[in-house]
Amino acid sequence: MILLVFEGKKREPELFAAIERLGLFKPGRIICSFCSDIQSLYKRVKELEGGVEGAADMVQLLQVARKDYPDDPIHSVTSDRISEIYLFFDCDLHNRRYSLNEQKVRLVELLSLLGDELEYGKLYISYPMIEAIRYTGMLPDEDFGNYHFPILDCKSFKDRADKFSAYSSLDFLIPQDERKRDEVRSNWSHLVRQHRAKAQCLCEVSAKERLTQKKLFGAQRDKHITPRGEVAILASIPLFLYDYFNEKKRKELGFSLEE
Fold first, then answer.
1. Phi, psi values for residue 65, rounded to 5°
2. Does this model's pTM top 0.85?
3. Quick one: DSSP state of residue 192?
4. Which of 210, 207, 175, 179 is nearest to 194 (CA)?
């Protein structure tokens, strides 16, 4: 069984439910909402570092974090039932509890620890937050590779994404009508391709090469965060979908960037 860990309780689970309804992702899975930010995740992970290895660590971490919520699905899981763990969090560099330099160091450390879905888990980060999935012109958006956002303005990003998007709601990704199923599925294919194309351009890798989240953060840090005080806009879920499937399946789903 796959464990999906989301920062929030609403947006990410809604998007994954849509992906499943569209037939883009159909494994057995359990969802847990962490209900706190990436810096809180860092603190929890550091508390468990060096403890029991493997899935038990993340399951234990989540059970402790959600101890006041006995109905949370994580309490019904034992580590031996979990085969893979994926986590989805916002970058949140506008967090004022820590300096920007502290946050950069912490995120590198966290991505080093959470880089393998078969061990502690694999962390995917949205820049600056999950609403990056809406920050697009009409799909396919040929200008997507040029979009970035100032870190100091990130508190307003949700509103800016809403105003910028060519789509008035998330209905372009969440099918409300079976008659639009093919259109919505096509939208996901465009999103996956344009997010991956932007990430691989940023990291200077090809479509065939492995692109780790740690490498992506390093490129964000060196090309945007440190010199310009901004992030290149990218959402975690499209990048996950590209990584999750082999090339044969990516071609079948319309995700492939290989010639």
1. -60, -30
2. yes
3. H
4. 207
